[in-house]
Amino acid sequence: MKIGLFTDTYRPSINGIVYVVDSTKKHLEELGHEVYIFCPARSIRPSKNALAFDEDDHIIRFPSIKGAFYDDYDTSIFFPPRVLRRIRELELDVIHFFTPGQVGLMGVYTAFKSDTPLVAQHCTDLREYVEHYRDGMLLPGLLALIALLPFAVKVDGKDLREIMKLYRPRRGRVEWNIDIVERMVTLVYSKCDAVVALSRKSKIQLESWQHADNYKYMVTLKPDGVTPLPASTKAEQKAFREQYGIAPDDELITFVGRLGAEKNLAMLIPVIEQVHAVHDKARLLFVGDFEYRETLESLAAASLSPDRITFTGALPREELGRVYDTSSVFAFPSLTDTQAWVLHEATHAGLPVVMIDPELSEVVFDDENGYIVPNDVSEFATAVTRILGDKKLQKRFGERSRELSGQFTEAGQIQKLEKVYETAVARHETKQFN
Question: Are residues 259 and 400 in the same domain?
């Protein structure tokens, strides 16, 4: 098959969606498919960036402006007719979009214009984002996306009435944002031939939004697979500790990921204060970067344990093996993720996990390979302390982590994605004859 992957975030950004898109392309190609990625250029001159990234002609970038709505978002600004012609000339068999932004909606638009089977992958919990960013600053961007819907999807009178309702101001901006997200996502996904949820959390959420009978769709639960990172050597672990001033006997409580405000990371500062009061060798490690890093560093400097908190900045994925292998516990306080690749990476490395979101991951289960706790500093700290204080428990949790993560390899999950594509094609053909 010829497959088009449409994403509003891609290299040089470092995040889970970027890894998923690259992994999907790689493994689909290994199965014999021809795969194209459509993404922002992070420049109004796509050809210049394509050369900088050393990309082949199967990665097609659209001109974009960085940070028009928020720092890590690229707003694609030009979709001339020749772009649509170029995509249609590829004669794609399936269009698969990861984000419902401008590029994602371009994929939706192309699918309807070219009568191509359409697959949606729900990668971002937009509802939690607008709930977290309560200043309402996302509203202009959401309203702009709504304006694109009649051009992106095949709409009827009922759809237009539904869209127009979204412009009706609500009592509060946050409530308005939430209503827009739920209704917009439901309308777009109802036009797709298949919808993929990466976690039970997302599947339940998407199904709960389908209030109107005419906006029903099936949701397939299929987490993305993750290939284990190569194990690091003792010498590499020693070098990593020395590079960041980590003592040989320090016990690392580690977070890996984008340092965004919506990920609830500030709670880890008082967590390390409480854990350090019991385990004097405990150290909190933040691996990643983004706009919230400066705030976290300020909180760390003002904390009771400023010398027990380390920031490494963003690291290439191929260097993360030594991070996980050097750590004792993986800490994941986020409530806004839809799967979290890093949980798979950490469990592949045999780490116990402490997290909050109970339906987020198929590789973490309470009291099997870690603890799932309420969104409470003391309970989170107690769980971490319990793991650090019991080496037998660490070992048991670590072994179970490897067992659970081993069920979700990249190659195995891509084969399941193939079946999703086949189902989408069959459904699309059925719709054509109805």
Answer: yes
